[in-house]
Write a structure and sequence with these properties.
Elements lengths: L30 H26 L36 H36 L2 H16 L2 H12 L3 H28 L2 H8 L4 H13 L3 H21 L11 H8 L8 H29 L1
Helix pairs in contact: 1-2, 1-10, 2-3, 2-5, 2-8, 3-5, 4-5, 5-7, 5-8, 6-7, 8-9, 8-10, 9-10
Length: 299
């Protein structure tokens, strides 16, 4: 009988004992990967930073008064005199987009804050308030999810009346159910964790466990949710303004500019294209930034 039949070989000299696996050196991080991550962050930071500056000090970026009427320059195409062209009244499109960043972003930010605040209350009650409260809040959220978000906002505006303040509250209410479900899921997962069990054994009250252990850990995704919700809220606010339920004309607001430009789409495409591009850029930048924050939190 040969030694190989006993499981003995030069590679395995002791029967039943296998040599340790050869450790492969880990692949070092390349500068290209880091550069790619920085480039991905550069787009949302630059876009959101530009429009944030436009929100704070629009006069620094806009060369014209957004409400100044000049019929001689009506329907001027994009060019040196007017970078993005003019509308039917000769108003500069670029200046109106810059000044329109303030109502659009402020509506989106305020609606996101309202949605997150309401979701925090509902999610906390559902996730830490006991079985009956969890079931009750769950049924409420199911009813809200059964209705399309935009339809729910339209119903609220129909009851409260159109306006910027009503739009903010309507968009905030429509985004709250999604946030509440996510926060509730975080609290339920943490409620059964060893951390909470240890705090319970130590005799800490439910309120102290909630505010000391659960909420600080459950609110970690809030930055991601808020950033992602900002883009969604801007799109919804623009949709309501497009329907004539937001800022009244001639206020420079992106959704209202889209609504005004659709009448002249075949004559002056830039009246619709550039306000729509601003909405898309803000929504895309918020989405990319939220994904980057999420990936950074998982590392």
């Amino acid at each position: 009988m040969s030694i190989t039949e006993h499981g003995i070989s030069p590679e395995n000299p002791v029967p039943g004992v296998h040599p340790p696996a050869t450790l492969q050196p880990s692949t070092p991080r390349t500068p290209t990967g880091a550069l790619t991550r920085w480039l991905r962050l550069a787009f949302p930071v630059l876009v959101l930073g530009f429009f944030a500056l436009a929100t704070i000090v629009p006069s620094w970026l806009a060369p014209f008064d957004p409400l100044a009427i000049n019929p001689v320059d009506a329907f001027s195409p994009p060019g040196p005199g007017h970078l993005l062209g003019t509308d039917e009244s000769g108003r500069d499109i670029y200046s109106r987009i810059i000044y329109g960043a303030r109502p659009s972003l402020l509506i989106g930010a305020a609606a996101t804050a309202i949605g997150l605040g309401l979701a925090l209350v509902l999610g906390t009650v559902a996730g830490f308030g006991g079985r009956w409260l969890d079931a009750g809040v769950g049924r409420i959220l199911e009813v809200l999810f059964a209705l399309p978000g935009l339809l729910l906002a339209l119903v609220f505006i129909a009851l409260a009346g159109p306006g910027v303040g009503t739009t903010v509250v309507a968009v905030g209410l429509t985004t709250a159910p999604g946030y509440a479900r996510l926060i509730r899921g975080q609290l339920v997962a943490l409620r059964e964790s060893p951390m909470v069990e240890a705090a319970t054994v130590l005799g800490r009250s439910r309120a102290k466990i909630l505010f000391t252990h659960l909420l600080p850990n459950a609110l970690a995704p809030i930055a991601v949710l808020g950033t992602l919700g900002l883009g969604q809220a801007v799109v919804w606010a623009a949709s309501l303004s497009f329907l004539g339920l937001g800022a009244p004309p001639p206020a420079p607001e992106w959704g209202a500019m889209l609504s005004a430009g659709r009448t002249y789409l075949s004559l002056a495409w830039w009246m619709t294209f550039f306000p729509g591009l601003a909405i898309v850029l803000v929504a895309a930048a918020a989405t990319v930034l939220s994904r980057a924050l999420n990936q950074g939190g998982e590392k």
